[in-house]
Amino acid sequence: MKKIIATGLILSTFLYGSQNLIVESKKAGLIPIPTSKYELNKLTYNIDNPSTIERIELGKKLFFDPRLSKSGLISCNTCHNLSMGGVDGLSSAVGHKWISNPHNLNSPTVYNSVFMSKQFWDGRNITLEEQAGGPILAGPEMASTKEHVEEVVNSIPEYIKGFKKAYSNNIIINFKKITDTISIFERSLVTPSRFDDFLNGNKKALSNQEKIGLKTFIDKGCVTCHNGVGIGGTMQPLGVSAAYKYNNVGDFKGDKNGMVKTPTLRNITLTAPYFHNGQIKTLPEAIEEMGRIQLGVKLTPSEISDIHCFLKTLEGKNFKMNLPVLPKSTNHTPLPNID
Ligand code: HEC
Ligand code: HEC
Fold it and tell me: Is the dihedral of CA 273, 274, 275, 281 positive or negative?
């Protein structure tokens, strides 16, 4: 019986056709990462903080440079490890002196964060430029000061040279310029996936079960919050139909209206554990909990498995990241301070 139903579903999806599913996905608000560089640029470019190849490379070094932190140990990459999905794999982030995030918050990925309309779980910043200064100065994160960051960068001739090349000979290398340059690097962290290939017209990019999963994702209503190019990124209520089962871990309650930033589902297979306090360890459990608390439905095991199958198609494909070599310190570079 089960087999007949499954075959029926596959058959009807087959008959329904990939072209219809592409149209329906777009109608529902899902947007692919464009294949053309020009179109992509329109989505990632900030006219007030324009990107160039030199600035991206320089920002990458700064993203990886632990000397910006007080201890000399922690870089953006410590918690947003670009070698593993842009996260740290911990429930609650750990920073300076092994201090855990005071609100028990999980590190979101920085991949594709350029597509989010809000940054942070409570959406308190809009742009990556606004965001980048925060963690450097935060006590439990990098515990640094603006002066320390400026001193470090200005003590390293190779960095000075890099800034001159990326901007102009009379560039003043201050905290804002440094964090803006990190943001330019972050704007380049986009990871096109098989899902994008499909929406961009390659009907064979997804298997039948993945297509069924996508259709279920739309029909069940996941797409009402997880949409746009980021497949997330807007503020939404949490606990629409029931309270999140681990609500009491940490004191995070959303923004002043109780709204929570919808995380991107891109690379979701790489960014466990899940939810703002990282209490959910597996994707099937996250999918089931979302159905229960956001949609008021009990998803069946096969619906969960189909959606899970679809979510795997959001993993960036052929993604490459080269480790930057950082310029060496000088006698003027402030020493690490682990207190
Ligand atoms: C100690 C770990 C830690 C370090 C170091 C750290 N972050 Fe984060 N980051 C977090 C956590 C935790 C959050 C979520 C905090 C919140 O919502 O209040 C976050 C949020 C973000 C976000 C928002 C993403 C989103 O989808 O909402 C961006 C972007 C980001 N960090 C970039 C950076 C950059 C750039 C650096 C280095 C300058 C950095 N982070 C350093 C832990 C860290
Ligand atoms: C009403 C809006 C809404 C709906 C509908 C919704 N979500 Fe979510 N989703 C959110 C928000 C907000 C969060 C963040 C919750 C938190 O961290 O506490 C989230 C988190 C998630 C996460 C964890 C992401 C992470 O990085 O931690 C997954 C996976 C997810 N949703 C999948 C789904 C699926 C699958 C469906 C449909 C069954 C769905 N969502 C329906 C708003 C929604």
Answer: negative
Q: How far is the CA of 242 from the centre of ligand 2 (A)?
A: 13
Instruction: Round to whole Å and give the CA distance between 333 and 329.
Output: 6
Task: Tell me the residue type at 298.
Answer: K
Q: Residue 199: which of 12, 28, 30, 15 has the closest Cα? A: 30
Residue type, position 14, single letter: F
Q: What is the mean pLDDT of each run of 10 residues along the chain (339 residues)?
A: 56 70 98 97 96 98 98 97 97 96 97 97 95 92 96 98 98 98 98 98 96 98 98 98 98 97 98 98 98 98 98 94 96 96
Q: State the Cα–Cα distance between residues 289 and 155, nearest whole angstrom.
A: 50
What's the confidence (pLDDT) of residue 319?
A: 86
How close is the Cα of 56 to the center of ligand 2, in Å?
Answer: 31
Q: CA-to-CA distance for 119 and 330, rounded, in angstroms?
A: 35
Which atom, in ligand 1's list, is nearest to the CA of 78? 5
Q: Which of 232, 228, 207 shows the shortest CA–CA distance to 290?
A: 232
129 CA distance to ligand 1 middle (Å): 12
Q: Return the structure tokens found at 64.
A: 């990886």
